Predict the structure of Long-chain fatty acid transport protein.
Amino acid sequence: MKLNKIYSAVLISLLPSASVFAAGLDRSGQSIATFLQPGNYFEAGISILDPEVSGKDKSGNTATDMAGDYYFPHAALKVQANEHFSVGLIYDQPYGADAEYSGNNNFVENRPVLFKGGTSVEVDTQNLNLILGYQPTQNWNLYAGAVYQTVDGTVLLRGTTYSAFNGYDFRTGEDESAGWLAGVAYQIPEIALKASVTYRSEIKHKINAYERFNAAGMTGNTLLDNAMTVLNASSGQTELTTPQSVNVDLQSGIMVDTVAFANLRWVDWSNFKVQPYNFGKLSQMLGQAGLVPGKPNGFNLIDYKDDQISATVGLGRKLNERWGANVSVGWDSGAGNPVTTLGPTEGYWNVGTGVRFSPAENYFIGAGVKYFWLGDADAVTGAHTQAGQFADNHAIAYGLNVGYKF
């Protein structure tokens, strides 16, 4: 049942990242599998997602193809310093969003005003993980590390769906912060058995973000217009915390040249929220004035109802000395329904397959594809007022990576 040095490392690494269209803003799945490979190892790759997300606003108008295509790279280097100590660097883009509404619907402002256009969101994050590992025996690996993270986000709200916030702009600029990770792994190389549990901390960002209410002076409500004007002249700090998470990774040889694998992931989205400083001030004014019933303390620009749980299971098979392949099935719970209009899907099912070609024993080239059935969702604004329904959507993900053992 024993696999050779490179095959046991790469048979399960041929698919696009498990979470390319997961709950909340999750993208990469934050795997540390490369750090757990034997010896010295380098890997780099890219995943691309092509989603098709459409629905209807609460008036029955169609909102077509609002989710943008996106790609994200990853790279990792692991060095086995000696028999007991290892060090690794992993770069990925763990969270993100890319969406824009167009056409004739309540998520688009088509009137001749200064803030014409569609509601849109763009979020980019980068993680650089420095990991140190201690192997007291060949079976155990205890590891921990520091995580450097950048966040850059833009949200533009347009259309009658957002009422007083029609025309609102929010831009964070790039902000930097740090967190940590820790975990433990156990392996029996002779049967390609490997199990690991990794915890990642939340990472807090405090941002002096740009905010503007472009509808100031245009709503017809003197009190509201004056409040917007005052808020446009003020500023304060916005707090944004990316969530804590736990990954469980399992693999085992089940017959000659064949491994079974599984990944389980939990992300604490239920405690995630984005309430920009001035957005929060105006939402409190609206709530206390009774204009947003049940929200006397205001509301968030983005939040989620539930935590995310996802799972992927599959089989990898060595076909011959140069070729290998795998298949997988994945499920994601979503982060609760209803969902934000900035990401109107709830969870998914997917199937995937991948192949790899190894010209020599110490390196490979892999490629994979996944098809996603995206969950139907009711879309709401930050105030949790009904905005629309999105159903029968899907996505296709592609991945390419290379690995080298040295």
